[in-house]
Amino acid sequence: MCSIVYDQELQASPPKHLDVPFFTEVLETALRTSRIQLTGIHCSMGSSTGENYCSQIYRVKLSYRQQNGKASQKDEQMMVIVKSIPRIDSVEFLEDLQVYLKEKITYYELLPRLELLTQCKRRFGPKLYQCMKQPQNTLVFEDLGQHGYVMASRETGLDETHCRLVMERLAEFHAASMVLATLDPDIFEAYGDGMLSPDGLAKDDGLLMRFFAGNGQQLHKLVNSWSGYERIAGKIGKYLEQQRAHLVRAQAPVDKEIKVLNHGDLWVNNMLFKYNGAQQVQDVIFIDFQLSIWGSPGIDLNYFFYTSLSLDVLKHKRPQLLKIYHNRLSETLLNLDLGVPVPSYEQLLAEVHRREGYGFFANYGILPTVSQDKSETSDNSLENFTDADFTKQKTEQMFASTRLAETLRYTLPHFERAGVFD
Known about the structure:
Blueprint: E1 4-6, H1 8-11, H2 20-31, E2 36-45, E3 56-66, E4 76-85, H3 92-96, H4 99-117, E5 128-132, E6 137-142, E7 149-150, H5 160-183, H6 207-224, H7 230-241, H8 243-251, E8 260-262, E9 271-275, E10 281-286, E11 293-295, H9 297-308, H10 311-316, H11 318-336, H12 345-354, H13 356-365, H14 367-370, H15 388-398, H16 402-417
Parallel strand pairs: 1-2
Antiparallel strand pairs: 2-3, 3-4, 4-6, 5-6, 7-9, 8-11, 9-10
Helix pairs in contact: 4-5, 5-11, 6-7, 6-15, 8-13, 9-12, 9-13, 13-16
C-alpha cells in the first residue's frame, strides 16, 4: 500500500488534498500509461518561506514500478512541482483575475502551440501534468530541477550575460504569440487583465491596493528625506493623490499598439537558468504564467528592467538589451514567415517609452520586495500582510534596503524625464 511521507516542516499541517489517487493520476499522465504502480510519495516544501506570496509550492518525489509482467522490477523515481493556491480572504483578488484558469489554459494550450510554431527548438515553460480546482486550485508541473535548471539570485539582480539571454528568449516568446494571434485571432481573449487589473485594484481595502498604497507612501517618505530630490518628492506626492488611476493607466490597452502575450510577472524568481560545467549560463525557461496579459511588449520589458537587473546593467546596458530584443523579435518573425509585420526599432522604443509608468510601478511596488535580504523574508506571506501593523513594519524594513535606495536615486530622475509623474 502506497503512503505519503512528509518532511518535518509539513508534518504539522500536511496538504491533505494531495493524496495517493491524485498522484497516481499525475504519474499516469506524465508517463502516458496506466501500467504503473505507485510505491512511494515524499512531499517537501518547494520554496523557501517568504519567496512565494500567492501559493504554496511543494516538491514531490514519486516512486513507482512499471507493470510489464516481470516480477523483479526496481523502483523508478520522478520529481514534480505542485503549486496550490489556498482559498483564503487575503487572495480574493486572484479569483477576480482568474489566475488559475488563465495559467491552466496557458500551460495546456498556449505554450505547446507556441513551441510547435518554433518547431520545438525552444521551451517556454515546464510541462503541466495535472490540475484540480477543488478543494484548492492546484497545478502539477515537471520539476525542471531534474534537468539542471535553477533560480538566480534575486537580491543582487541579473548581470549582463543573463539579461541578454532573457531578452532573446522573451523576444522569441513574444514573436511566436504574435504569429499565433494571426492563426487564431480569438485565442487571447482570456488575457485582457494582468497584475494591474481595474477589478483587482477597485477596493480601497483590497490587499493589492493597500500594498501598493503603502509602498507609495513609504517611497514618498524616503525621497522626502533626500537632499536634491525635493522637486521629485513633490511630484510623487501628486502622483499618489491619483495612484489608482495611474496604476490602471499604466497597463490599459492603447489603440494601434504592438500586441504580444506578456508573461506579466517577469522577474528573476519566475525564470530558471541552466549552466554548463564552467558555470556559463546556457538557457532560460519561464515559469508562473498566472498574470499573463495580451498587450504592449513595453509591459514585460519595463517590469523586467526595473525589478530584475543589477544597477550597473540598468545604468549602462539598457539600450543594448533593447536592441538584442528587437533583433531576435525581427529574426523570429521573419523565420516563422507567416506575414506578421516586423515592428521597427523606433516602434519598439515608443512602446517601451509609453509604458514607463509600468516601470515606475514595478520599481516602487515590486522591487522593494525583490531586493529584500533573505534573512528578512521568512515571515512574508499574504496572510501576514493583511495585518496593518505587520505591513507597516515590513514596508519600512523593505525601503531601508541599500540596493533599493541606490536604484531609486538613479531611476526616479529617469522617470521624471520620461513624464511619468505628469
